[in-house]
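Standup notes, structure subgroup. Blocker cleared on the tryptophan input:
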Amino acid sequence: MRILSGIQPTNVPTLGNYLGAMRNFVKLQEEYKDADILVFVADLHSITIPKDKSELKKNIKNLAALYIAVGLDPKKTHIFIQSEVKEHSELSFILECNSYIGEMERMIQFKEKSVKQGQTVTTGLLTYPCLMAADILLYDSNYVPVGEDQKQHVELTRDLAIRFNNRFGETFTVPEPLIRKSGARIMSLQDPLHKMSKSDPNPKGCISLLDDINEAKNKIRRAVTDNLGVMAYDKENQPGLANLIDIYSLLEDINVPNILEKYKGLGYKEFKEDLAEIVGKTLEKIQTKYNEIINSKELDTILDEGREYATTLARKKINKVHKKMGLGRN
Ligand code: AMP
Ligand code: TRP
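Run returned:
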């Protein structure tokens, strides 16, 4: 059984990326001990919206190091950089020729992002789902852990796999999305009705995994709550507090009723102070490992090994695709 997922290297990952995605990859290592797990840095995806060269380079390396810093074990999980395995682009074009423009235009993410880009929507932003399908189908991935927002792309991948298999004969495994039920959406600390995101205009709303620890703790202490003053989990009337309770619950692995019981009769201040400590400890642990690895030979060795492993699998699949379609001489 194979599990595959990736994250785009846009900015430094946030606490939301960690709790909604990265930490789940780490859990999968424990839950699926026999599975072959591939996790990659989706750098080709990130250029669908043009990026500054030196920022991109830095973010690619940061994300790779953070995968390891949050607990991915390179002995269990193959970690690699998407653009270093050329077969992703190769299969992507082939899938573009087996998909329809209408299918691409229907993708919710394309619609949302293209509105923001106005006149400068790249062709890559439109064909992005074919690249994502290539990432998944190259490796016969059975399960693809993603956030709710990526479910539609995995469903399209399934359609493309089935279409290709019907047309050219059995070639690709049809994947399934793996969406965690408890994978809460972490909201902005300043505007709890919007998701925590690096592009938040207010930096106090977002904690990045490489934030200064004291600064991060202060962001928790100053998070927007409400003036009801009652420790309760009520997303509608106390969305800020509910978000903080979610973060607490995920980081400490304590369920919400137990948290409410623990802080019954106490004020938000005590709760926030404890959460600030918890967040601080989490970041400290991640940053210690990150600092150890970011400029090490070890990181390069891990990424070289990941690239070699992925390339071997991907090459085999591309050769099969060429044969099935009648491309090349063999
Ligand atoms: P993005 O940064 O939007 O490219 O997302 C990368 C991964 O992190 C995806 O699996 C998202 O679902 C997840 N993610 C991003 N932001 C959040 C958030 N605020 N809460 C939970 N998960 C998130
Ligand atoms: N598109 C995903 C995102 O923006 C990242 C991604 C690219 C991915 N290729 C993938 C996730 C393949 C899972 C499988 O979050």
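Discussed briefly. The chain has two domains: 2-179+296-325, 203-291.
Next: hand off to the docking folks.
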